[in-house]
Structure formats: C-alpha cells, structure tokens
C-alpha cells in the first residue's frame, strides 16, 4: 500500500543526457492480519494534504483508500508500528488533526520520541500522544509481532517482524545496499550507526532467508 513520486530523469538531472524515463520513489506501508483477525499496520505513509510531508511529497497519500479497498476500516486496526518519525512514514498516523486509527496503539521507540521536532512533533506526535506505546529496544508489541531497535537512520529507528517477514522501514534505502551494506545514505542521521545496523540485521535476516518488506524499493517484497 502507498504512494509514489514520479519525475523524469531528464528533468532531475538537466543536461545529463539521461532519458525522460521517470525516477520513481515509492512509499510503502504494510498491513498484517493474523489468524485471529487482529490487524497491525506498519508505517502510515505521507498523509493528507496538510501533512508534514506536504512540502516535498505528492500528498495526499493513498493509504486510506487502499485500506478501504481491502475492506479495512481505520477503527479495525489495533496496532500501528511507526518504524521512525520521518514525515514519509509517520504523517498518515493522523487525519484531520486527530489520530487516524482511533483504536490503535502507536508503537514508537523512545529514542525517536526524544528526538522528534518540527512539524512531525507538532502535527503528529502531539496528536497521537494519548495512544502512544513507547518501547525501548526490542519488544513483542502484538501477538506474534515484534519490533527490533535498529538505530542509525534515526536514533529510534526500528524494524518489525511477523513470522518470516521483516518490515525494514529505512534500514535499507536502495537495493545496492543489499550487496554492500556499507554504502551510506545521505539522510541517515548517524551514518556509522546506520551501517552497523544494516550490516548486522541483513546478515541475520539472510541467515534465516527472511522476506524483506522494504519502505522505498520499487518492488517491496524480496526473499533474501
Ligand atoms: Zn523513508
């Protein structure tokens, strides 16, 4: 589920001779339904027209419509895991100035809450304050659903696990980092910590042949 930015390469890199093919940046969210019909949403995308992501992303996002198409009402969702408090992952946590998922606990790492600032603090964290489920480190946050603290992209970045599925947020931004986890990403808060987390977690996931569910790859699912 999610939205995408599309811009011609020739426009982004003027004079480069690159073709008009679009460069596409996807924003994926993931919905988990367990055998008892409990629903967990991992990340909430870019949000509505007035969201903190509206300065740079093609708002409104498509999550609400995609949930409806899947027969899921916002009130049905019991747990929302925010991998981190960046505007392209957390903005859809609110809608019209209220928590978008009225019955959900919002799972956030304490280190990201402590670091939150600007529009994400004012327009997201403050709004969902009464429904926060703050964790420090690794935890089971719903039956069979765990989070693992993976600092680097942000201080409180976390990935989510459900069975063999690993929803990795911005632990990995580009497929090249699967081959070489030491390739840095410009917008990692702490690039050294991000490389350590990426290297360690990818090695562990590869050892168990986990299925990655990535935040920004064109094709979100891949088995390691
Ligand atoms: Zn992101």
UniProtKB/TrEMBL annotation:
A Pfam family the protein falls into: Lactamase_B
Domain Metallo-beta-lactamase: 26-216
One annotated GO molecular function: metal ion binding
Transmembrane segments: none
Record key words, sorted: Hydrolase, Metal-binding, Zinc
Keyword Hydrolase listed: yes
Family: Belongs to the metallo-beta-lactamase superfamily.
Protein's recorded name: Zn-dependent hydrolase
Organism annotation: [Actinomadura] parvosata subsp. kistnae
């Amino acid at each position: 589920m999610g939205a995408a930015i599309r811009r011609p390469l020739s426009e982004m890199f003027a004079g480069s001779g690159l073709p008009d093919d679009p460069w596409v940046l996807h924003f994926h969210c993931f919905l988990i339904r367990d055998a008892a019909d409990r629903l967990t949403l991992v990340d909430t995308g870019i949000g509505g027209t007035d969201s903190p992501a509206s300065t740079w992303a093609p708002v409104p996002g498509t999550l609400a419509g995609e949930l409806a198409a899947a027969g899921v009402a916002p009130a049905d969702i019991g747990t929302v895991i925010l991998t981190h408090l960046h505007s392209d992952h957390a903005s859809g946590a609110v809608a019209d100035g209220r928590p978008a998922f009225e019955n959900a606990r919002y799972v956030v790492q304490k280190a990201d809450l402590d670091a939150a600032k600007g529009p994400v603090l004012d327009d997201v964290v403050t709004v969902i304050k009464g429904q926060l489920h703050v964790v420090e480190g690794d935890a089971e946050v719903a039956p069979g659903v765990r989070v693992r603290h993976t600092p680097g992209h942000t201080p409180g970045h976390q990935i989510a696990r459900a069975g063999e599925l690993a929803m990795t947020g911005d632990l990995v931004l580009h497929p090249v980092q699967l081959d070489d986890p030491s390739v840095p990403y410009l917008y990692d808060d702490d690039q050294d910590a991000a490389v350590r987390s990426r290297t360690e977690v990818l090695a562990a996931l590869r050892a168990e042949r986990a299925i990655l569910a990535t935040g920004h790859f064109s094709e979100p699912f891949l088995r390691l």
